[in-house]
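Need tokens for this chain, all 238 residues.
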Amino acid sequence: MHSKALVLFSGGQDSTTCLAFALERYPHVETIGFDYRQRHRVELERRESIRAALHRDFPRWHGRLGEDHLVRIDALADVSTTALTRDIEIVMDEKGLPNTFVPGRNLLFLTFAGAVAYRRGLKVIVGGMCETDFSGYPDCRDDTIKAMQLALNLGMDARFVVETPLMWLDKAATWRLAEELGGSALVDLVVEETHTCYLGERGARHDWGYGCGTCPACKLRAEGWRKYSIDKRSLQSK
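Here are the structure tokens for all 238 residues:
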């Protein structure tokens, strides 16, 4: 049974839920984030307050949260022309993918995470990749993650386990998972502290949190919140 995990932690809804998932399962959990000059890098500024709140307000997980690692990958912005790394309009490309897709991003994230996990003796790597409610990004697919796990283990002569607890969940189910893990306190933390909006908008407060309300990430989060809220009211009325 593994006891130590490394969570890919951006400061967004999905990665915060994954961090809670890991804290519930493993006695020692470290986090890793990536600065690739993303347009919405305000998400990185949320990480410290989220980690502090998880340590402070959830006694069951007290003492489990370990070191945080922040890795700069400026080259990712240099080699990509996307709406997440450049100030350009979010549109669909000729392959039917939104231009928020950053080629190679999750592959690099997992490679660097594997290197840090190798050095730190962490056997489990947890990521928020999802194939259910996503924009079609090929590096979020289950096959990609399984291939990366194999490549990491072969390339580092290791036995990493890459866990993706959100892989088959839609956004409504992700909200429900947060509630199951940490109750209303964790849901409130996700609403108030996490950041998902691709445009980096923190001014407008919605029921589901902060964001522009119109980018693909905001729309997914808002629709998930709507379905989650309807389901919750339905259960409460029974």
